C-alpha cells in the first residue's frame, strides 16, 4: 500500500439505511490503492450495499463515500464490478470473446461491432485472466470456473483501478475457489489495483488478502486478520458471543456450537449457496449495476 497516493476508497461517517434498517451506521474507513481486501460478514450485513454505494447506486443518508479521490458516482469507468450470482442464461450461445465484449459500453445488448481500439480493450482483458483460448468457445461449453474467468475479464475491461467482486466464490468447489482467488490476486498485483472481494468464508481468502473488512450490526472493522478476527471484535459485529478457533492454519468463527460462516451459507429461503449450482436464484435481481 503506497501511503502517499490517493486512497482507493474512503468512507467518512457514512450511514446507510435501507427499508427502515441501518445497514451502515457512522462508518469511517480508508483503503489504499493497491490493497486486496476480503469483505466478510453475516447475511444482510451490507457487503453488497457497500459495493453499490461505491458504484453510486445507493446514496448514504449521511457522510461521504469517496472513490479514488472523487465522490462516488454512477458509471465510474475506474471501477470494475462483478455482481453476485449473475445469470448467464441469456449469453450461453455467445462465444466467450463476444460475451466479454458485450460488457463494453454501448454494446451491452446484442452482438458487438467494435472498432479496433475497443477490440484491443476486450482482448487485453481476456489476456489478463489467461483466457485467450477459452474465449474462442461458446459459454454453453464452459465450466462454472471458466465462465467465472470470463466474467472477471469483463469486470477488467478498460483496466479499472478498483475492482469490486461480490461473492465470486459462491457455487464453486474448493479447488475452483482457490483458482479464482489466486487469479484475482495475481491480476491485482500485476495491475497494482485495489480489490474488494466479498465472501461468506474467510479461509479461502486468508493467503491472498492484505486486510479484512468485516461488517455486521451496522459496524465495520478493517484491519489485519489478527486485528479483526478475534472474539472481542466479532462479538460486537455479530451482537452475540463469538469465539475464534484456529486449527491447522484455518480459522473458525464460532457461536457456541455453531460455525457462523458455514451457517451463513443458509439464506433466509433455505438455499445453500455453498453448494447451489443452479444459477437461477438471484436475490439481487433488479437492484444491480446495469
Ligand atoms: N433496496 C433495498 N430496500 C430495502 N432493503 C434492502 C434493499 N437492498 C438491500 N436491502 C437489505 O439490506 C440488507 C443488506 O443487504 P446486502 O445485500 O448488502 O447484504 P450482504 O451482506 O451482501 O448479504 P448476503 O451475504 O446475504 O449477500 C439486507 O437486510 C437486505 O435485505
* Low-pLDDT runs: 106-110, 267-290
Determine the fraction of residues in helical runs and give it as a percent range.
Answer: 25-40%
H-E order: EEEHEEEHHHEHEEEHHEEEH
Structural class: alpha/beta
CATH architecture field of the largest domain: 3-Layer(aba) Sandwich
What is the name of the CATH topology of the largest domain?
Rossmann fold
Alpha carbon gyration radius: 19 Å
Largest sheet: 6 strands, mixed
Say which CATH homologous superfamily of the largest domain is assigned.
P-loop containing nucleotide triphosphate hydrolases
Task: Map the helices and strands.
Layout: E1 9-18, E2 21-31, E3 36-40, H1 47-54, E4 62-67, E5 70-71, E6 79-82, H2 96-101, H3 116-128, H4 144-155, E7 162-165, H5 174-191, E8 194-198, E9 211-216, E10 219-223, H6 225-228, H7 231-238, E11 243-247, E12 250-255, E13 258-259, H8 260-263
Parallel strand pairs: 3-8, 3-9, 6-7, 7-8
Antiparallel strand pairs: 1-2, 1-4, 4-5, 9-10, 11-12, 12-13
Helix pairs in contact: 3-4, 4-5
The structure holds adenosine-5'-triphosphate.
Structure description:
The protein is an alpha/beta fold and 290 residues long. 25% of the residues lie in helices and 24% in strands. Helix 3 packs across helix 4 and helix 4 (144-155) packs parallel to helix 5 (174-191). The two termini are 31 Å apart. Adenosine-5'-triphosphate is lined by residues 18-19, 23, 41, 43-49, 287.
Please sum up the structure shown.
By secondary structure, the protein is of the alpha/beta class.
